[in-house]
Design brief:
- By secondary structure, the chain is an alpha/beta fold.
- It is 36% helix and 9% strand.
- It is built from eight helices and five strands.
- The chain has helices at 11-17, 24-34, 46-61, 69-78, 83-92, 112-116, 119-128, 171-182, and strands spanning 104-109, 142-147, 159-161, 164-167, 190-191.
- Helix 2 (24-34) runs antiparallel to helix 3 and helix 7 (119-128) packs across helix 8.
Length: 222
């Protein structure tokens, strides 16, 4: 599982991130997020602001992004919150990376449905490409993490890579996805099963077939 411990607070970390502040683009996004909450409730924006901070770090480092401690302190000051309260949120939710990650964060679901459908083979395929759990690959492209259920049990096994899900995977299909990403391309997201669109039965529906192309009213038949 992903390490939830913050990266060590070193002088080098302070030198690199001690002066972090939202860029003009991210400041506008932060203010938009704050506007969703009533006056006096700006602390409720801690999750979207942490996400924005992580994304800005990602753009600055050409990675998926992570949350150095000085960045967490900045968000705490921005929201007038104790740092420990912001740190508690950041370390609880797996959407936040507490240590540096690669350009692509490959999160493989290892929960029972995905395991029964071959997630061990998916992890093996990642390791075959040089990925190691919790480490940035030598080329800076990949970080591999095993996670718990992400809600795509009907299209298992699946991985989440940055903001996108890839489902109905085999080692060969995963390799095709990773090859495309390594080339700077955007592979098809969602199910990788040919002819499948979302989570309908593999091979096509067995009932309510008239609903495939249009909204069909079955009430007269019942």
């Amino acid at each position: 599982m992903a390490n939830r411990q913050p990266a060590p607070d070193t002088p080098e970390l302070r030198e690199r991130w001690g002066n972090f502040a939202f860029s003009a683009e991210y400041e506008a996004k932060a203010q938009k997020a704050l506007a969703r909450y009533p006056e006096g409730r700006k602390k409720s924006a801690v999750m979207p602001l942490l996400d924005l901070a992580q994304r800005q770090v990602g753009e600055e480092t050409d990675t998926q992004g992570w949350l150095p401690l000085p960045v967490i302190e900045y968000v705490a000051k921005y929201l007038d919150m104790p740092v420990i309260r912001v740190l508690e949120v950041a370390t609880f939710y797996f959407m936040y990376n507490m240590t540096p990650v690669g350009k692509y964060h490959v999160q493989v679901c290892g929960t029972t449905p995905c395991m029964l459908r071959g997630s061990d083979d998916i992890i093996a395929a990642c390791k075959k490409r040089g990925m190691k759990m919790g480490h940035v690959s030598d080329d800076g492209l990949w970080t591999l993490t095993e996670v718990e259920c992400m809600g795509n049990c009907a299209t298992a096994p699946m991985v989440q890579i940055n903001d996108d899900n890839y489902e109905d995977l085999t080692p060969e299909r995963l390799d095709a996805v990773l090859d495309a990403l390594a080339k700077g391309e955007q592979p098809k997201t969602g199910t990788q099963e040919p002819g499948r669109h979302t989570s309908e039965p593999s091979g096509g529906p067995t009932t309510l077939k008239e609903m495939v192309t249009e909204n069909h009213d079955y009430r007269g038949e019942w």
